[in-house]
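Rotation project, supervised by the postdoc (A.L.). Task for the rotation student: set up a whole-complex structure prediction and record inputs and outputs verbatim in this book. Inputs entered:
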Amino acid sequence: MITYRYTLPLCPADIVPLQEYDKVLLTGCLYTARDAAHKKMAAILQKGEKLPLDLAKTALFYCGPSPLKPGNKFGAIGPTTSSRMDIYTPLLIQNGLRVMIGKGERSLEVQKAIMDFGAVYFLMPGGISAYLSQYIVSYETFLWQELGPEAIYKLQVKEIPVFVGIK
Amino acid sequence: MPYRYVSHETIASELATAIKNITFNPDPELPAKLKLALNNETHPLSQEILNYLLQNIDLAPTKAIPLCQDTGTLVVFAEIGNQCIIEGPPLPEIINETLKKVSAELYLRPSIVQDPLFRRENTGNNAPAIVHLSLIEGDKIKLHIAQKGGGAENMSRLKMFTPSANADDITNFAVETVALAKGNACPPVIIGIGIGGNFETCALLAKKAILQPLNNENPIAEYALLENDILNRVNETGIGVQGMGGKTTALAVHILTAPCHIASLPVAVNLQCHSHRHIEIII
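Outputs recorded:
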């Protein structure tokens, strides 16, 4: 198990040397998206319209954070089950997505898309919001505020630990 | 028969304290269980993540950040003494109003949608809770509450076995449930198993089984043995902490049983993630 320190967005050369279960400390912006945001992104792409974010430069974090408490810089975060996003993921990968972070296994279709397109799926341990809070620098709503915890939030993180799941 | 009157304010206040408590503090026996697992674990990745889990338990109350961002569905087993009269609205209403207030106060993530299929609009306040009412003797109210996350709940299963099934079949079903869940259920898990009753009772028993003290041993020897067999088998799967490999896949197995129909043998397996948040209060 090798430890890498990477700055987001990742470039294809960053992904090439990674092996399963290598530890990667990520610094930069993560964009949260879970069920409702995925449904919305897929609907936009299926209509042939343009997404309001550039998937190629986006690290998607399957997460629904807790709301921002006044005086705090962030809410509680952590990964949700990635497989619920499997149905949408190949389409997002075809449209440029290369970095995903969540927990649990992925479908064969997602595994294939990840390998075909040189993408990477990182695992983040779940149920440790207080521990992970040490790595959050800032947090703001980015898109679709009406979705509440299912909106896309922009999270600035510093050396947050993830592990290579599939590449 | 003398009756005891309990005001809704008293219940709301004690319940609010209990919800706050479990948002930041897991089952009090959990840290020792995790430390024991860490001593026994040989897989480096599982060891590393067990350390994260232990640090998280220390950090949550001091930083006032929830143990997990998914503060779950609030499940309440309410046992009301037959000599106790609640002054004010019905108990489920008191529970829901308290839940809404605490969710706002602690900035808990709203995790409940009103319509499950078509609209899926978030209620915005974590209500309604899931409340199971029952009557007991005495003049007290017992509330056993849990914050039940969605990940492990999604991976739980129920099967209507028939009387030809034996203990091995049930063991296989439980092991298979954990194996299908892999990292989705946030292992190391606690496994609650309900055997008997009927379709809905076995599921309820499985949920109640999760809420037993972590170190509780089944008082019936053959069920204690079965719990132990299932625990060993699950930990031999190699799924490990967060599904990343190792010996630590489950921390405990609890079985509860009920009488059932001569044609039936219902079995439910309810999984609890490592963020095991529950408490019993007596009012």
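Student's summary: DSSP finds five helices and seven strands in chain A.
Supervisor addendum: The longest strand of chain A covers residues 152-166.
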